[in-house]
Amino acid sequence: MDRFRVRARALRARRTSAEDRLWQALRDRRLASWKFRRQHPINGYVVDFVTIAGKLVVEVDGATHGTDAEIVRDALRTGRIESLGFFVMRITNTDVYDNLEGVLEAIDAQLAGS
């Protein structure tokens, strides 16, 4: 098994509570019948959520994504994933906790436009 699949499996086992909350809303085609995968390897990165058919990656970002170094790293990662034809949507933990319905509406709207 390649190292990205091993890493993805480990990340699925220790997901954050925000990721778990969003996953409960996305799994089993619960959002407009879109099939989502969690902690899925794409081109050397493990993304939080992806719908391959909709070409959408959803990243749930916590406080660690606010430093200058992390912002630069995330921008590079986003650019590389988007170069493969995906759109990367970044959601904060706070949005998942405080406005899950709004997050789901934003994801659905992005997919409706794809």
Automatic annotation (TrEMBL):
<protein>
    <recommendedName>
        <fullName>DUF559 domain-containing protein</fullName>
    </recommendedName>
</protein>
<dbReference type="Pfam" id="PF04480">
    <property type="entry name" value="DUF559"/>
</dbReference>
<dbReference type="InterPro" id="IPR011335">
    <property type="entry name" value="Restrct_endonuc-II-like"/>
</dbReference>
<feature type="domain" description="DUF559">
    <location>
        <begin position="5"/>
        <end position="111"/>
    </location>
</feature>
<dbReference type="InterPro" id="IPR007569">
    <property type="entry name" value="DUF559"/>
</dbReference>
<dbReference type="InterPro" id="IPR047216">
    <property type="entry name" value="Endonuclease_DUF559_bact"/>
</dbReference>
